[in-house]
Structures are given as C-alpha cells and as structure tokens.
Specification:
112 residues, Immunoglobulin-like, three-stranded antiparallel sheet
Amino acid sequence: MKNGNVSKVFKVTNSGSQDINLESVITSCMCTTAYILKEDGSKSRPFGMPGHGGAVPKANEVIQAGESRNIEVVYNPNAHGPAGVGRIDRYVYLEDGNGNKLQFEIKANVTP
C-alpha cells in the first residue's frame, strides 16, 4: 500500500482476418482502472467499474486484422483502506461488437 498504484500492460492481438470493434472495457472493482494505449503513445480515457461514478464510456476502438493494442491495467491498493490487505483478484473485461469477451485477471497480495 505504501508504494501506491501498480500497473500491468497486456497486449491484445487481432489474429483474425476481420477487424474487431472493441466496444467496451470494464473492470470488476472501483480500485481498478484500464486504459487503451494508442499507437501514438497516448492513453484513452479511463475505463472502470459500471455503476461507480456514472456510466462507463464506450471504447469504440477498432483493432484491424493483424494489429495489436496494449491495455494498461492500474490497481490502487489503497482504494479499500486499511481493511483491504491480503490476497486480491481483479478482472478486466473487453467486449467486441458481437458480444465476444476477453477477460484479464490480476492477482496480488496487498501489504501495508
């Protein structure tokens, strides 16, 4: 907790022959935020848990056949306060326009 946020970058590759419209990026908890890292080095707006702080914006990111995108996941170990120590599992869900889902899981052992 004393070291602050922890991040991990996941690479998503469209190995298919058709473009994918990444419609949504959501997280399983308010302590976790996800960003789409753009090819120009910039980040998308933050994506989080539905129902906390309003609606989660649509991603609407097209990943062309053969292209990749990096998804940065940021976990805030201080979000749950002193009671939030111990093992955690958090998830990030990507969904395309056809309802196909991809899930990332992060695990950590939160210490003071």
